[in-house]
Amino acid sequence: MSDQILDVDLLAFETGSKTQRAAVVDGVMRSLRTGFVFTAHDLSESMLDETYEMLAEFFGLGVEEKESLVVPGSHGQVGYTGLLVETAASSDVPDFKEMLNWNAELAEGHPLRRRYPHLYNTPVFGDDFVAGMSTVLTSFHERVLAVQRRFLRIIAVGLGAHEEFFDDLTADGPTLTRAIRYPAMSDAPSGEHIWAGEHGDINLITALPRATARGLQVQTDDGWIDAAPPDGHVIINTLRQPRCQRRPGPGRRSPLGRTVLSSSIVDATLTVGELHHRTDASALRRHRSCRCARSGALRNQPCGRRSQGSITRC
Fold it and tell me: Is residue 2, in this structure, part of any structural domain at all?
């Protein structure tokens, strides 16, 4: 098989020897030819357990209670999204799933929130139905985001950039956490439906810490393969790499995923993904990135640094 999803260890990159760090970088860049990689992490299993138990309790509520968290005009960026609402661009049939979406709230006066209000919504939670939900889900959001930003340091090194290249480019970037419940397919209105149609994520990096059952598949040159990480691993999907990247690796094409029924699954499935975008106000334009790469600035220093809410670019 020419394309494989490899598993690496984030902590080995952060605390290992030079040889171990290099091995992690190499594994990540080879695996990201699929757009996906599995990584060991230090997220607390008890924290994940509590989060998933609370989400299962929420999705077990009645339709009326869940629909009270629908936020009109949010386009699925915050609040509850019901069954058969979202449709993949590649399909004419709605996905058979329901979702709860949330983010970390920026201050009302933050310049990014003023300029892009549709990306920085006020999160809504079901604390009236599931006590303590907002606290647990907000903590989950922050911890998974930290893993994503740490993992971007591996990718930066793999691209020949300074390890901290993405740090300021993602500070305060819009980040959406999306809990998805896929009901038992026996309840689907017709045989045309699947859990999630073929699609490519449009954000910089996505982390999937856990699913209660298999279902995610990734398209490779050899066809669709299951994305089934070892226990204790997060699935990472990243797409938006600089176009001036010349060697084979991430960014050469947009990887596609879908979520389909595994023959061993008879009940509903729950998964959570966190989608992290770059900070638009601090993003380098592609032509600027290419010039930086040629000049060596990417290798020698972070490309942006924060100064009173603004960014000084290299």
Answer: no
Query: Six-digit token pair at 118?
Result: 């549709």
Antiparallel, parallel or unpaired: β 223-226 and 196-199: unpaired
- CA-wise closest residue to 248 among 30, 4, 6: 30
Residue 144 neighbours by CB under 8 Å, 6+ apart = 43, 177, 207, 209, 234, 274
Locate 103 and state its tokens. Answer: 């983010």
> Does a structural domain hold residue 119?
yes
User: What integer pLDDT is reported at residue 188 of this predicted model?
Assistant: 73
pTM > 0.70: yes
Please name which of 34, 55, 70 lies closest in space to residue 273, comparing C-alpha atoms: 55
**Segments of the chain scoring below 70 in pLDDT:** 1-3, 87-92, 185, 187, 190-202, 212-215, 239-269, 277-314
Structural domain contains residue 208? yes
| Parallel/antiparallel/unpaired status of strands 7-9 and 36-40 | parallel
CATH of the domain at 152: 2.60.120.330
